[in-house]
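Design request, tokens follow.
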């Protein structure tokens, strides 16, 4: 069965010019991300803004009391009303120190989550083919309201899935040159079945993206965002994180369970996490207390140039897209 999930497509792909971080380099990246996290937490505590650790960061807090040793990113979850307050307050306080990319305002942005990126650094991912502001980052996933009525909730979920998929296809088409090159460069590290599956998935996404290219990335992103925000009831029985790794239905929870927080130690500081982290982490990872084998550990690909002391603009002649 062919999987079209972006997460599935890129999990094991390692393009030839990707940056493989040594242990000391990974520790430096984690230190940089931790400083961003501390700034975010300081602001949220000052302004009374709710957030919680998400994904692998929540897993790190529960299993390691800090970063998963091989983890290279930080994920946060934030309810929609708090998120909207956050993006206003953060830009005012930290605009000189960080770029803040959001699906609401950032032109050409193809993600449905917010990304806080540190100026003066260059940490390029596959999302940065057309982006010059590509510093070390933290992802913020928005927890959305959804409907109590089962039929309306089902329709909302299907609409969110469709809108997110179409945006992904449109992005694949915009970046088809780099996507095809990345696939070819990863051929040597994928088994035959995985390569064929990825090749078919790339072809289908690019084909669909071409068919809907009558509208640009920004238009499709705005459409998807409207779908995500369809339920305006901030007291809804259910909430979901449609941009999360398990999408709408895999990240659907009762508000009273999911938004209730507990403080867990993470890298020397207590930080909020859903109190029902057992359910949350089991849904995301299954047996989350089991340490995965080295070949099962998830890592992200970074691309040259990579630096924690220079931003992309300081590399003479470098343009978004680089030499992938």
């Amino acid at each position: 069965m062919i999987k079209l999930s972006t997460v599935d497509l890129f999990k094991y792909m390692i393009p030839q010019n990707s940056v493989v971080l040594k242990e000391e380099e990974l520790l430096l990246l984690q230190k940089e991300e931790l400083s961003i996290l501390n700034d975010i937490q300081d602001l949220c505590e000052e302004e009374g803004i709710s957030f919680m650790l998400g994904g692998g960061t929540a897993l790190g807090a529960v299993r390691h009391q800090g970063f998963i040793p091989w983890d290279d990113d930080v994920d946060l979850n934030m309810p929609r009303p708090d998120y909207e307050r956050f993006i206003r307050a953060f830009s005012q306080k930290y605009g000189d120190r960080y770029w803040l990319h959001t699906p609401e305002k950032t032109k050409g942005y193809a993600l449905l989550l917010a990304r806080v990126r540190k100026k003066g650094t260059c940490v390029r991912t596959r999302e940065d083919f057309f982006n010059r502001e590509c510093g070390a980052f933290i992802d913020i996933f928005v927890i959305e309201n959804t409907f109590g009525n089962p039929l309306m909730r089902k329709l909302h979920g299907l609409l969110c899935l469709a809108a997110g998929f179409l945006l992904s296809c449109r992005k694949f088409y915009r970046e088809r040159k780099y996507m095809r090159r990345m696939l070819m460069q990863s051929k040597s590290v994928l088994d035959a079945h995985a390569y064929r599956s990825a090749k078919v998935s790339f072809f289908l996404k690019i084909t669909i993206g071409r068919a809907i290219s009558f509208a640009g990335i920004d238009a499709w992103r705005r459409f998807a965002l409207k779908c995500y925000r369809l339920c305006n009831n901030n007291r809804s029985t259910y909430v979901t994180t449609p941009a999360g790794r398990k999408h709408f239905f895999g990240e659907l929870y009762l508000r009273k369970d999911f938004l209730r927080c507990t403080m867990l130690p993470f890298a020397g500081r207590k930080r909020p996490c859903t109190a029902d982290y057992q359910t949350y982490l089991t849904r995301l990872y299954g047996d989350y207390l089991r340490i995965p084998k080295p070949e099962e550990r998830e890592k992200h690909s970074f691309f040259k140039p990579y630096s924690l002391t220079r931003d992309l603009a300081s590399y003479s002649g470098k343009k978004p897209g680089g030499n992938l």
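Comment from the thread starter after seeing the answer: thanks! The chain has eleven helices and twelve strands.
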